[in-house]
Structures are given as C-alpha cells and as structure tokens.
Amino acid sequence: MAGKTQLQQADGTSFAFDGDAARIVTLSPHLAEIVYAAGAGERLIATVEYSDYPEAAKAVPRIGDAFRIDVERVVALQPDLVIAWHSGNPQAAISQLRALGVPVWSVEISEPGEIAGILEAVGALTGHADQASTRANEIRQRLEKLSSLYANEPSLDYFYQVGAKPLFTINGDQMISRGLSLCGGENIFSDEPG
Fold this sequence. Notes:
The chain is α/β, with parallel strands linked by helices. Helices cover 35% and strands 20% of the residues. The chain has six helices and twelve strands. The strands form five sheets. The chain has a four-stranded parallel beta sheet with strand order 4-3-7-8, with helices on both faces. It has a two-stranded antiparallel ribbon with strand order 1-2. The chain has a two-stranded antiparallel sheet with strand order 5-6. Strand 7 (81-85), helix 3 (91-99) and strand 8 (104-107) form a beta-alpha-beta unit.
C-alpha cells in the first residue's frame, strides 16, 4: 500500500492520492513510457495511440490518442489513476473524467530534469519507489554529464522541423529545445511566441 501521496499538478494545484495505483491509464505515449521506466508497466491497463516504447506498451489497449480521449472507455476500465498530459490532452475530457470521480493527475514536463521527479512520483504511487529512484538518478546523472560535456563548447544554431505541410517548428519553451540546449544547441526560433 503506497499510502497518502500529495503531488503537484501542472496547473499548480495539489493532487492527493490515497492508496496504491494498481490500475493506471496514461493519456500520452511519454507518460506510458515513464510508467514502464518506474517499474510499474504491469499496472498500465490502457494508454493512447503511438505508445510503442518499450515493446510491451504496444500490447496495451488504446482509449484514443493524445487529442481525443474515449471518456466512456476510460470510466468503464475503472482505473485507480489516470495520468494526463496537461498541455496535450483535451481539457474538456479531463474535466469530464474528474466530474465522474476518476482520479486524474495532470502533469507537464517542460525541462528534461523534470522527468526524474515524475518517475519518482509514479514509483511512490505504485510501490516501485526503489526502481523508480534508481532510474531517476540515472537520468539526472546523464543530464549532468551532457551539461558538463558541452558547457565549454561553442553553441550550434539549429532549426527543428516538426512538420512539413504546413511547415512548423518549436520555440525555446518546448522540451525538445531545452533538451538540445544541454548539448549546446541554440534554437533559431527560440524567442518566437508559442
């Protein structure tokens, strides 16, 4: 039994979870990957399209994609916990799930180092704290190594193409930009509005 856990949500509010998350639904591929990395993959009962890592995630039932959630199917699965992607999931679906009594923890990872904290939280919620802590520390060490490796190197300007039709990119507030900056990358569109 994991016990009472207080977690920060992406909107700054607190999320109180009492118990052990034995039945988890994730609403984005990166959140499914984090559940597996924390050692709790066997607790993932549903996720969204494009959840393909690790290999076992491909077999998990789908309840939509990051932008369209089948609320009825989620409720029918009776999850103990839904982990939502704050900026990527439809807020109407999240509100509807909460109104129906489904515990939803809404997260946003905007800095590479935040991955470790989410991993540790999932570990605490699922009774996998040791494995999650080990993986979180590995991530912190890798990020620190990258940062120190490129600290004295000249920066490299780059353009990151997300899509071709229409052509679009990301600004400096995006996780990808922040990750590449650890390696000396300088997004040429860093200062553009979101």
